[in-house]
Amino acid sequence: MNTVRLTMAQAVIRYMMAQKVDIGGELKPLFAGVWAIFGHGNVAGLGEALYHVQEELPTYRAHNEQGMAHAAIAYAKTLNRRQMMACTASAGPGSTNMVTAAAVAHVNRLPVLFLPGDTFATRLPDPVLQQVENFHDHTLTSNDCFKPVSRFFDRITRPEQLLTSLPQAMRVLTDPVECGPVTLAMPQDVQTMAYDFPEHFFDEKVHRLRRQSPDQQELSAAIELIRQSKKPLVIAGGGVHYSGALSELDALVSTYHLPVGETQAGKGTLPWDHEQNMGTVGVTGAASTNALAAEADLIIAVGTRLGDFASGSRAMINPDARLLCLNVASFDAVKHKGQPLVGDAKLTLPEVHSALQDWQPDGSWIEKAAQLRADWNKTVDIATTDRGTNLPTDAEVVGAVNRAAGERDIVVCAAGGLPGELQKLWRTRFDKGYHMEYGYSCMGYELAGGLGTKMAKPDSEVFVMVGDGSYLMLNSEIATSVMLGYKIIAVVLDNRGYGCIHRLQQFCGGPGFNNLLDDCLTVEGGAPKTDFAAHATALGARAEKVNNIQELEAALERAKASSVSYVITLDTDPLLDTQEGGSWWDVAVPEVSERSEVEEARKRYESYKARQRQNM
């Protein structure tokens, strides 16, 4: 057996480079690059290994470890999980900075390979700089924080352990069911240790999307359930995108006139003006779709786990409706007491299509869906129209950015009130035109996520919509976007605080407290007014502040003409959001309070709780 002597770090990088993916008959690298912030825990091992292959496997330097991991996550999401990136940081705070991002990837089922530096496996120099010493368990390090937020975790304490660990890591990263973040903790001394690896270990490996056909008994039960229904509603989730089942979904719902509601992750599965697209569904969904969900006798959930925002905390859907869950993961297919149909959507939807034959929903249901859809589109038109004030609503800003976006452009967002407005109001015909991280709704994802999205789709304009709160949490990757030449357009909506949670606080009966900057503990003069344009300019971007929607629209044209990242900021109304559409969200209200407003909110809460489906 021929062998090659490599350090552990060199072997990891060489193995990564041997991984290829077949996308439509074209072989591409599975790993498009490595994000790295070096420190003493990885610079001599992984840093040296990456240096020698930088032409074949690019190394990208970021300014924040969490930010670079968000960029990697957004890259994988934009490319439907077919290509991905790795992230490495030093032992200690560099690595734990990536833990939040690992949680984002885990919740959203997105592949990222985390390679955090770790403390010495030999323990000879212990305690080393940045080492977390555990008094009762010396095997624990700060990297153990990755365990609950990783789909696969291993600590490589000997180079030869890679022979069994790396194939398992690749299995998880490329598996449609188990897909998610993988963490290989890498002690800094072991990274530099050498071993005689078999040469065949580094043979090219081509990954192809595994597609699972449905069980025929489950398929027959699903067909019978559909044929018995008169008022069905399809809910399309992110799994439709990852399966590449857009045309199959279109064919099914068009043939049988099935109304479709899209989740946050599923938005874009149908063009916004498709006759069967009723709009989005759930807590921040369209009035049209939610009205149908309240009356439907069958919910056909495709590629969605039906989280609380999609199901209206289980209180929005007709309590007598049956539930059919088509999902590649049985873990998700059996949720909510649904009838499972486990299988790949691209393979399964055509089988459902052909088996239904001459079946159709009730004619009155088809007519009602069409009328509700028309009414909702008028609502969107009104909500996104410029009112001509100098303190616009989020909806007006969404409308302006949407009008500026081209057919193949992308909007990116993650947290606060904007995801709700965008889910209701953003219109796209491009299947990747809507990029929302709402599984974890992580503040700070937006700008870094915009960078990763642009890297995946460099020919699209990427519009990042971000509130002042999220901007202040994590903005450093603006400088990275300028450094790497990946232009993003960021629109910063400054409502002077966390406006979304302020509104929720009031809805739950509380006074304004610690959310808007005016309600926070500050010096006598109040919190400073942040000059976001000046800040972004200092990071290397072009930037300007505008005062109203008309000025915003003009600035967006300048931004599109810019060759570098462009930031536009404007003040917005913290109190107004789009009241039309949406449904109740289960946020518990105190049973006892000195405030009468809280007591009233509790009564309202209990009335909604009574509607929750216990058997869903």
UniProtKB/TrEMBL annotation:
Q: Which keywords belong to this entry?
A: Hydrolase, Thiamine pyrophosphate
GO molecular function terms here? 3D-(3,5/4)-trihydroxycyclohexane-1,2-dione hydrolase activity
Task: Specify whether Magnesium is a keyword of the entry.
Answer: no
Q: Which Pfam families match?
A: TPP_enzyme_C, TPP_enzyme_M, TPP_enzyme_N
UniProt-listed SUPFAM superfamilies: DHS-like NAD/FAD-binding domain (SSF52467), Thiamin diphosphate-binding fold (THDP-binding) (SSF52518)
Q: In what residue span(s) does the Thiamine pyrophosphate enzyme N-terminal TPP-binding domain sit?
A: 46-130
Q: By what name is this protein known?
A: 3D-(3,5/4)-trihydroxycyclohexane-1,2-dione acylhydrolase (Decyclizing)
Q: Which organism is it from?
A: Litchfieldella rifensis
> What's the name of its gene?
iolD
